[in-house]
Amino acid sequence: MAYITLNRTKLKHNYDFLNSRFEQNNIEWGVVSKLLCGNRTFIEELIKLGTREIHDSRIGNLKVVKSINPDVQTVYIKPPAKKNILKIVKYADVSFNTEYTTMQLLSKEAMRQGKVHKVIIMIEMGDLREGVVGDHLLEFYEQVFELPNLEIVGLGTNLNCLNGVMPSPDKLVQLSLYKELVETKFNKKIPWVSGGTSVTFPLLQRKLLPKGVNHFRIGETLYFGADLFTGGTVEGMQTDVFKLYAQIIELTQKPKTPEGELAENPSGEVFEIRQEDIGKTSYRAIVDIGLLEIAPDFLIPEEKGVTVIGASSDMLVLDLGNSDRNYQVGDIVTFQMKYMGVLGVLNSDYIEKYVVE
């Protein structure tokens, strides 16, 4: 059976790297755990690192955090669905919000549970996902700041999540100015300008981050060392916290091109024959993982010369033609993965999950 590992040592290296940068700049931050899909063992590893704040978009995952350590501050990072209000208040100390009617329900539920629920108001800054339009912010804030049992602790934004709009110093200065405007207008203190995410971290590294931004939510850069501006790696960070291992279940020399009339496969794809491959063969391996767990585009074989050919629901086909290793049936092929690949694998009940040093 295929399995995935989380390397504890490399995760700690990346966490310490980030934590040092944030401490040097007096920035608070939390770890985004949604990639871990609520896996208790992996979430325990996050908490062992010393993180005091964990963010997630699934309330069940925050429930796992609270069951491990109730003192970790939990943040629900999307506007709550009304049917989940009770659970949001129970398991999330903080939530992102953009709708007055939702915040009314949060207020009533927080009163019922005898809690003060914290809120970050998300502001639209151009990527066109969640957020209050800036022109309406003062009117919106005036409606919500007196709701009982709610505390507005921050103004935030998300960029690069839907339409790929990148953060810029100008956009983040504007976010900081919104905070100053609200504080001046209503004589209320807002502790956080939560404009920092993995895609924003390179601005901090390059000393381009406006000083007003004092809160980050980091996921991808922690797990992959990713510099999302360049598509490369942050110098000094580890890229392979996660690895995937799959076993060869068939290994045969076969033609490079299929034979017969071609139609769409179950994924809706039609194979395109390259003229230079006609009449050629290669050693092809089938490994025990498929589209149910991961799309081929998200896989990065560690062995040079191994090429991902394609996948069906439960099997992945590899071309071993240029590999120096003498693979045999039963051998393990190792992969690194892109973010969405790890997400798919960790969301699968069919993949074993282990922590390694």
Automatic annotation (TrEMBL):
Which residue numbers delimit the Alanine racemase N-terminal domain?
Answer: 7-225
- Domain of life, source organism: Bacteria
Which keywords does this Swiss-Prot/TrEMBL entry list? Isomerase, Pyridoxal phosphate
State its cofactor.
pyridoxal 5'-phosphate
Give the matching Pfam families.
Ala_racemase_N
Keyword Isomerase appears in the UniProt entry: yes
Q: What is this protein called?
A: Alanine/ornithine racemase family PLP-dependent enzyme
